[in-house]
Amino acid sequence: MPVAAERLDGLTRIGQEITPYVTPDGRWLLFSRDGDLYWVTAQRLEQDQE
């Protein structure tokens, strides 16, 4: 199920964010911001949906 972008305000930062990827097990969201790699637990996305 897609997540509305406005529901991710806590994850949004200034900078170029590209290549989002959710791991096959659905546990992690990986992305690149200004050339650095980051990962966030997918539970954070579920919390933002509530």
Describe this structure in words.
By secondary structure, this protein is α+β, with helices and mostly antiparallel strands. The chain has one domain. Helices cover 16% and strands 36% of the residues. The chain contains 1 helix and 3 strands. It has one helix at residues 42-49, and strands spanning 17-22, 28-33, 36-41. A hairpin with a 2-residue loop joins strand 2 and strand 3 (36-41). It is flat and about 25 Å long. The relative contact order is 0.24. It comes from Wenzhouxiangella sediminis. This is Dipeptidylpeptidase IV N-terminal domain-containing protein. Pfam families: PD40.
Short description:
The protein has 1 helix and 3 strands. With 50 residues, it is of the alpha+beta class. Strands 1-2-3 form a 3-stranded antiparallel beta sheet.
* Class inferred from helices and paired strands: alpha+beta
Structure annotation, total helices: 1
This entry's quaternary arrangement is single chain
Q: Biggest sheet, strands in spatial order?
A: 1-2-3
Write down the secondary-structure element order: EEEH
Please give the number of β-strands. 3
In this structure, how is the largest beta sheet organized?
Answer: 3 strands, antiparallel
Write out key terms for the chains shown:
3 strands, flat, 3-stranded antiparallel β-sheet, Dipeptidylpeptidase IV N-terminal domain-containing protein, WD40, alpha+beta, 50 residues, disordered N terminus
Topology summary:
Layout: E1 17-22, E2 28-33, E3 36-41, H1 42-49
